[in-house]
Amino acid sequence: MEDGLVDVVVVYKIDRLSRSLMDFSKLVEVFDRNNVTFVSVTQSFNTTTSMGRLTLNILLSFAQFEREVTAERIRDKVRASRMKGIFMGGTPPYGYKPKDRKLLIDEQEARNVRWIFARFLEIGSATELARELAKRGIRTPRGNPMSKNFLYRMLNNRAYIGEAVHKGTGYAGEHQRLIDQKTWDHVQSILQQSPRLRASNTRAESPALLKGLLYGPDGAAFSPTHTRKGDRLYRYYVSQTVLKHGAGKCPVARVPAAEIEAAVIDQIRGILRAPEVVISTWRAAPPVYDGLSENEVRAALAALDPLWSELFPAEQARIVQLLIERVDISTDGLKFRFRDRGLVQIATEVNSLDTKSRAAAA
Questions:
Q1: pTM
Q2: Residue 219 gets which letter from DSSP?
Q3: 346 with 288: CB under 8 angstroms?
Q4: Which fold has domain 96-194?
Q5: Other C-beta atoms within 10 Å of 282: how many?
Q6: CA-to-CA distance for 191 and 110, rounded, in angstroms?
Q7: Three-state DSSP class for 232?
Q8: Are 229 and 252 in contact (CB under 8 A)?
Q9: What is the pLDDT of residues 289-298, one digit of tens each?
Q10: Are 116 and 129 in contact (CB under 8 A)?
Q11: Where in the chain is the domain with CATH 3.90.1750.20?
């Protein structure tokens, strides 16, 4: 209109252009300023006269009134339906699927939801939980990785305790709950803490995997320690020689804990996948454990590798202590000394758990 490209604006009814008196008055100013004619096909009035303009304003007032009443009715209907626990459409929470305006449990996703809540209680960190979910290949219904923001929304979604929420108020829903009240309350108490504090606690409470196992080139043991800079925590292993006699007395004074622990874990997982380890473990088994076949050892050690990332930090530390007798660090690298009986014990434990799981399933 400002460029002079429009002569006439035609609508079916006035309220098809706008249902707001204020907006329409602004549009009329633009029409008048650019000599544009406004036409309503089903309504006849002449805006050049005072009576015509009054008619126009009355029609617009009713249009605005109708819009506002309709919106109020919709809000009241939604509120009443939510108070009855009815699902009102939209994207269903992860773990549910909509059917006939009701939320039904999706068993596969529901198992993931219960695992997420239980795992969060153990580690207290959405960031770490997101990493574990990525390793397990668990994604959102759209196929995206579960970010920590997605997890926070899930952990705060009261639909999982059987509630339908409207404007912050929860009502008893028609759908079944996935999470019991005790677990929900515990998760909420953890979420009340500062994320930085929870992250710091998670790192500080993680056991040192190589405590009592790591030795330097001079034969002195390395001890776990940590330092803080602001809210961040840094873990190290420091040589006892350095602690007793000062820096410069050992060619390897300290090493970052995360890096050397990752190297040891990679070595362990590589050993578990090596066929020759299966044979040597099986041969070492009879004097210690009877009735353990070679196939059982192979299956048990093969099953442990994909389960490693799901184990609690304390359980990972226990396995490392069972499998490794000593780790020597030097300027040239790392040397490992494994325990055959440790491999046998781990294989037996995993085999026993697998046997119990099959029996329970049967």
A1: 0.43
A2: S
A3: no
A4: Hect, E3 ligase catalytic domain fold (3.90.1750)
A5: 20
A6: 21
A7: strand
A8: no
A9: 555 666 766 6
A10: yes
A11: 96-194
